[in-house]
Structures are given as structure tokens and as C-alpha cells.
Amino acid sequence: MDVARRSLAALQRHARTYASAARHAKEPRHFAYQDRRTKLSERKTHLYGLYERLVNESELLLLFQMENINMPLMSEVRAQLSHVPIPQSDRDRLVELNGGQPWELPPSRFSVVRTGLLRPVCRTHASDAVQELGPYLHGQLAMLSCPVLSPDYLGRLLRAMDKPVAAAAATADPQSGKKVPKLAPLVAVVERSRLVEARGLPALTKLPDLATLRSQLLGLLSAPSQQLAGLLTQARGGRLAATLEARRRDLETPP
Question: Nearest-5° angle of CA 213, CA 216, CA 219?
Fold first, then answer.
């Protein structure tokens, strides 16, 4: 019983001491890092909005895996990209997108991405192809975005990016602690409708531009029906080609 009384008395003294300390507690101090937290939140809001615009307004989004890419090397890569000219036909498309006004922004954008912010943007997007980027959004990534899809321009960009990274990798000495940089294409979304993995990029860069495709299509549609049927047969459109051939014979048969 004496032990119980002593324990109860000690507990009461502790409670009185805690209450007294609480009454005399000082106002919490304000530190500079607390202001930086607020600014970081604003930064995240800005980046989230930026990623939304890039996803919605870019015909090409290409993600890259990054390893040991420091800021000087990143700046050198951006400088190389800035010197790559975009074909005139694609520049004309940029003018069309801009309502007929000259396009004064760079035709491409390359930057490190915050995957934690890009992930919800892709997850809530209406496009299935954009949503499929989700599993790729982890680790250190960079993103190349272009408002218009230009296969030729993309090929030039990839070659320009490889030059400074390859030069830096050639001078890296793992024994001295200098790690080998890596900047490798991972996956792309084309026109917000198709997911293209890295192994499909070489074929993508060899496609003709939109102006060439339009001229080829126009020539195809204006060709005589017999020539059109032959072209479709060569393209393995056998059933459709046979239908067009039968229709041609019907038109040529006198009533």
C-alpha cells in the first residue's frame, strides 16, 4: 500500500510539473527553413502546371534515364540542342499553331523532371498512352518535349545530345572516383496517342515528315484507279485492292 501511495504521489508531482511548464512555455520560434517550405510548395505548384501544359501541348514527349549527369554537362547538352535547326516545314507548323504569328520559343525543351509531380499528371490524363508512362516514372529522369512531331528533327536532337555525353564518358576514370555519365532514351509518347519504347525510336526518326506524307497521300489519291489498285496490292491490302479493281472494271464496261 505504501508503494502504491508513493507512486501515486510521484505521478501527481509529475503532472503538476508538466502543467506548470506548459503555462510558462515560450512561443514557438520561427526559422528560415519554414519559409523555404512555403516556397517549395509554390515551386511544386508551378512545376505541376508546367507538366500539364507540356503533356497537353506536345506532340512528342521523350523520357531519358539519367546517371551521373552534373549541371555543367546538362548545360552543355542544352547548348547542343539549341543549335539544332528544325526543318522549315515543321517551323511552318509552329507558326500555324501560334495563330499565324512567328514562333519565338525554342522548338524543343529539355529538362530534369520531378517524377513525383509528373506521375499524377500522367495518371489523370485522358490519353491511355500518357497514362502508360506511369511505370516508367521513377529514378532520375529527364524529358525532351516538342510541340510538333518531326522525325528528322528528333534524329538530329538525339545525335546532338549524344556528343557531349559520349565525350564526358570517354574521359571518366572510375578508379579516380569519376563516374561514367549516362543519358539514355527510355520511352516516348507520340501525339498523345502512342507509346514508343527506346528500341522503336530509330524507326521513328526515319519516318518522313508531315509535308512529305501529305504529298505522297495526295499523289496516291490522284493516281489512276489501276495504279492505285497496284499500290494497295504491294502494301498487302489484297482484299481492298481486289474490290477497287472490280469497281474499275465496272466503270470501264460500257452499258
Answer: 150
The domain covering 34-207 belongs, at the CATH homologous superfamily level, to Ribosomal protein L10, N-terminal RNA-binding domain (3.30.70.1730)
Of 203, 204, 157, the residue nearest 183 (C-alpha):
157
- The answer to whether the CB of 187 falls within 8 A of the CB of 133 is yes
Whole-model pTM: value is 0.69
Burial group, residue 42, by CB count within 10 angstroms (0-12, 13-18, 19+): exposed
d(CA 114, CA 47): 8
Domain residues of the chain, as ranges?
34-207, 223-252
Per mean pLDDT, which range of 81-90, 109-118, 235-244 is the poorest? 235-244
Helix runs in 144-237, H state only: 151-171, 201-205, 210-221, 225-234
